[in-house]
Amino acid sequence: MTESVTTTASTSAGTGKPFLELKNLQVHFPTDDGLVKAVNGLSFTLERGKTLGIVGESGSGKSVSSLAIMGLHKGSRAKVGGEIWLDGAELVGMSVPEIRRLRGQQVAMIFQDPLSAMHPFYRVGDQLVEAYRVHNEVPKSVARKRAIDLLDRVGIPSPDKRFFDYPHQFSGGMRQRAMIAMALMCDPQLLIADEPTTALDVTVQAQILDLMMDLQKEFNSAIVIITHDLGVVAQMAQDVVVMYGGRVVEAGPVREIFYRPEMPYTWGLLGSIPRVNRGGDHRLKSIRGTPPSLINLPKGCPFQPRCDYQQHVEGHSCTGEVPDLLQIGTEDHRVRCHIETGQRKKLFTEQIKPNL
Amino acid sequence: MTLGVSEDLPPDGGLPADGLAETAEAKQIEGRSLGQIAWARLKKDKIAVISAVIILLIIAVAIFAPLIVKINGFPPDQFNKLDSDGNPLLNTRDGGIPIGGLWGSGTSTEHWLGVEPQNGRDVFSRLVYGTRVSLLVALGGTLIAIVLGTVIGMVSGYFGGWVDTLLSRLMDIMLSFPSLLFIMALTPVVADRGQDLLGIPDDNRLRLGVLMFVLGFFGWAYLARIVRGQTLSLREREFVEAARSLGAGPMYVIFKQILPNLIPTLLVYTTLLIPGNITAEAALSFLGVGIKEPTSSWGRMIADASDWIESNPLYLFFPGIALFITVLAFNLLGDSVRDALDPRAGRS
Amino acid sequence: MGRYLIRRLLQTVVILWVISAITFFLFWITPANPALLICGKNCNTETIATVNATFGFDDPLIVQYGTYMKGLVSPTGRDIGSEGSERNCAWPCFGESYQNGIPVWDSISDAFPATFWLAIGAATIWLFFGVMLGLLAALRKGKALDKLSVGLALFGVSFPTIVFGYLLLFLFIVKLKWIPFPDTANAALFEVGPVKWLQFYILPWITLALVFAALYTRLTRANMIDTMNEDYIRTARAKGLGEGTVIFKHGLRSALTPIVTIFGLDLGGLLGGAVITEQIFSITGLGKFAIDSVLGNDLPAIMGVVLFAAIFIVLANVVVDVLYAVIDPRVRLS
After folding, report:
1. Is A70 within 8 Å of C250 when comparing Cβ atoms?
2. CB C168, CB C276: distance < 8 Å
3. pLDDT of residue A280
4. Which of A181, B74, B153, C296 is geometrically suited to a Cys-Cys bond with B224, CB 3.0 to 4.6 A?
């Protein structure tokens, strides 16, 4: 805190506010069939140098939230509500030209499928150069040098040659590396990675995650990693947000979520991870049912139609009201569930944990 | 694996489907619901309903042409010199243009849309009969093109190998022909040959058939290419593999398994071909290689009327408007059908 | 690239050869006695025999085909006429017209400039309006401008050329008298000057352009909407690029790629003659030559004009393939 006088606004310590803070973010899409409530009240905070994982099934609102941080819903039909504070600036109410200055510069994004996320008609190097020159008025040669330098640092062999290649000439892993290099061109303070490893081979996945962690140390950036793979979260993140049906159902430090989860949906997610150390006759559990329709969310708890533990609820009705996201314990662990905390803990230790 | 999970597995679930039977069943439900969705969308679409009504009216006019013409009492081929009061209809000294009527077209309570210059044939009757030619040729040509394109495309895509190579090259060549030029040049030749081969005179019954044939013959290649591509991918699908592994013959697979899945494509292509063929028939008759005198065709009427554009422009407009409305109605309906069948075209 | 081009050109030659063979045999099996057409009123057994000998109608079909192809392939062309009275028909020899004895190639090369100007002018108009309207519609999707463009396009594709052409002719030439009746002499730009030339071509250009403009509007709109939903457009925005750069540098380039293909093929098709427009506006181009030949049963002329048009279509295919490879790097290297 004593340093706060000398540091610039880029460290949030001075203001006393978190570097990134989402307050009750809402993203709704009006359609002919009704209002799609893709994100319905998402809140979290994130400091520089830290990683937050957002976990959930497809359609749980993960990617939509990340696009909201980038302001990429502006100009579409989506209605965005709530607040997004980044380094003292509010993004939801920001005009497009203002937020455009932040994109790529302060916040950068790594997309899921690097093949479709890069323009097929332009050279990889030129796409990197373009990303740099939007925000920095430098001659092409300077930008090119930086691009080659970054391609080198993300581990692309002979980057001065590969600079002139087109995206389709790169392998999947290389393309994702190039994508990361592109995101890092302007030294962004916040990096949003939307399923960065889903499209990749398992061996390449690990390399890419290592690379992201190394670069995080080097640039001291904050990372939001969006995934449905809990393994990725365990490796990368300090905090986890579990989303279901556009809502946060459980959030907290990664240890808490992995070792003391309390929401039945999180139990289901944990139960569906394959583990090597389990016995051969052990079967993976899948969560029965399908993700909910975002137009007609189930009454009450959104997870209720798929929940196997409703008989443990006392005093509330799962189909009645939406449970609140309540803090439990001393750690910043929040859970949205009608089952009473003690009962949840008991259920987890007695029924769930032995099967994990 | 928990029981009952496999049926509506989320895409992310990562569990393999239980069995082929279930997949096939799911497909069927999906297919039916697409049809239902499309039909519901069409019924809600005002433009679709209006254009469908117009098309039905035009078809009714074509079918009941003899009855309709009875109402005004002038057969389409009848030369009329005098009206019912014995007054002349045509000015013989002035090149035979109609006397009186709107813009010198000879319109009257007897001849609603006027009379033809020189011959005095009733324009309304000729227009009504022209509907027959227009629809008959367009629908016939479309049917031939769809059948040829579907069969050749499916055979090419399903059997592959040298059959596919041969048929694909054939499609390439067909698409390289300057088609209107070729149709135009070929129609008299085919009519000539048909006369010889079939031993019937080169009258308009033969011409109708010839027009359908050439339009169909030059219209199939593009569809065949699309059908071939879809067949290629359908052939690899589970339900086809399942049927084959159960010993189904190629004919069964092609017609019972693949054809039903091509129906949306065929429907869309039909809606594109019909207005195109209506225009093509009119163009050929206009150029003088289609329907000949005395049978009336809108294209023929436009060609005749073009000589009188200064003195009697209405004579040109009536067939022009008829042609435009017909083509527009088919295009509007076709557009609606395409939108209704396209799952991406959510009404957003 | 070089090897690809050579292979592609070889394919082209084969396709052209097949087309020439099909065309030849389709037209030449016609039972009508061509000799009767040539000697006309003077026909008797003797003249018919002379004509048959002169033009080789007595030879088997395959021999006639060989003779015909020789005229197209041999640099010296071929000889026409019976022994002793041959005359050379210079390369490329498409034979002589039955109607007037003029070498078909001469008529084609005379008619081509009119068709060329008609096609080029119309293509400029439809490309400009089609792409512009389609682009605006896509960027204003769902708004009034979009609905207007979509409506106009539907109207345009539904307007048969014969109806639209005569409507323009009636309005601007007959009724308003803004433009004089078409006079073939005004087709020559360098003799009559640009004003008369423009007056001559403007209505045919619009007539011919309408349907294409409508189709291109729809195509551009659909492609542009698809492209703007691509992931790489989102990436471009995420980089912080301005909307102008996103639309024109990243969006339009991809959206126009398929249009380049179709434009090449359409233009190639029209260079072989725009029959209906030429007929309406009395333009003595290839299309008019074609229809006159068909109505006059003039086989060598029909054959010549069909082959000539086919050459344009086939060549347009090659040009388009090469262009595509230039635009899309994925095609270039695979």
Report:
1. no
2. no
3. 56
4. B153
Q: Name the residue among B277, B165, B163 with its Cα closest to residue B220.
A: B277
Residues of B with a Cβ under 8 Å from any A Cβ are: 1-2, 4-5, 8-13, 15, 346-348
Cβ–Cβ under 8 Å, residues C111 and C314: no
CB pairs under 8 A between B and C: 119
CA contacts within 13 A on the Cβ side of B100: 11
Residue A319 vs residue A118, higher pLDDT: A118
DSSP letters for B255-296: IIIIHHHHHHHHHHHHHHHHHHHHHHHHHHHHHTSSS-TTS-
Q: What is the pLDDT of residues B221-257, one digit of tens each?
A: 999 999 999 998 888 888 888 888 888 888 888 888 8
DSSP assignment, residue A12? G
Cα angle vertex B283, ends C208, B152, to 5°?
Answer: 100
At which residue do the structure tokens 């190629």 appear? B250
Give dist(CA A164, CA A123) in Å, integer.
6
State the DSSP H helix or E strand holding residue A40, giving kind and residue range, or none if neither. Answer: strand A34-46
User: Per the CB < 8 Å rule, is C232 touching A119?
Assistant: yes
Q: Is B198 part of the contact surface with chain C (CB cutoff 8 Å)?
A: no
CB A130 to CB C333 under 8 A? no
Question: What's the CA gap between A225 and A66, in Å, rounded?
Answer: 9
* Residue labelled with tokens 């078409």: C182
Model pLDDT, residue C292: 92
What is the phi/psi pair of residue C214, to 5°? -65, -45
Residues of C whose CB is below 8 A from A72: 234, 237-238
Q: Express each pLDDT in A119-170 by its tens digit.
A: 999 999 999 999 999 999 999 999 999 999 989 888 889 999 999 999 999 9
Terminal C-alpha separation, chain B: 39
Q: Which residue has the tokens 């941080």?
A: A69
Token code pair at residue B136:
């008959």
Residues of chain C with pLDDT under 70: 1, 29-42, 82-85, 332-334
Task: Answer yes or no: is pLDDT of A320 > 70.
Answer: yes
C269 touches chain B (CB under 8 A): yes
State the nearest Cα–Cα gap between B3 and chain A, in angstroms. 9
- Regions of chain B short of the pLDDT cut 50: 1-32, 346-348
Token pair recorded at residue B77: 């081929």
Q: Which pLDDT does position B13 carry in this prediction?
A: 34
Kindly determine whether residue B181 and residue C272, on different chains, have CB atoms separated by under 8 Å: yes
- Number of neighbours of residue C314 by Cβ within 10 angstroms: 23
A120 Cβ contact list (under 8 Å, min separation 6): A166, A167, A168, C232, C254, C328, C329, C330
Mutate to test the interface with C, among A64, A94, A121 (most CBs of C within 10 A): A121
Residue B28 has what pLDDT?
Answer: 40
**Tens digit of pLDDT for each residue in A206-254?**
888 888 888 888 888 999 999 888 888 888 899 999 999 888 999 999 9
pLDDT at position A204? 78
CB contact at 8 A, B57 and B127:
no
Instruction: Answer yes or no: is pLDDT of A281 > 80.
Output: no
Residues in chain A within 8 Å Cβ distance of B348: 31-32, 77
Which three-class secondary structure state does DSSP give residue C288? helix
To the nearest 10°, the Cα dihedral for B241, B242, B248, B253? -50
Read off φ and ψ for residue A251, nearest 5 degrees: -150, 150
Q: Does C327 touch chain A (CB under 8 A)?
A: yes
Closest to B282 (Cα-Cα) out of B333, B215, B231: B215
Cβ atoms A274, A286 nearer than 8 A: no
The predicted pLDDT at position A275 comes to 66
Alpha helices in chain A (DSSP H): 62-69, 96-102, 114-117, 124-135, 140-153, 159-162, 172-184, 202-219, 230-236, 254-259, 264-271, 341-347
> In terms of pLDDT, which residue wins out, B31 or A191?
A191
Length in residues, chain C: 334
Distance CA A115, CA A167 (A): 7
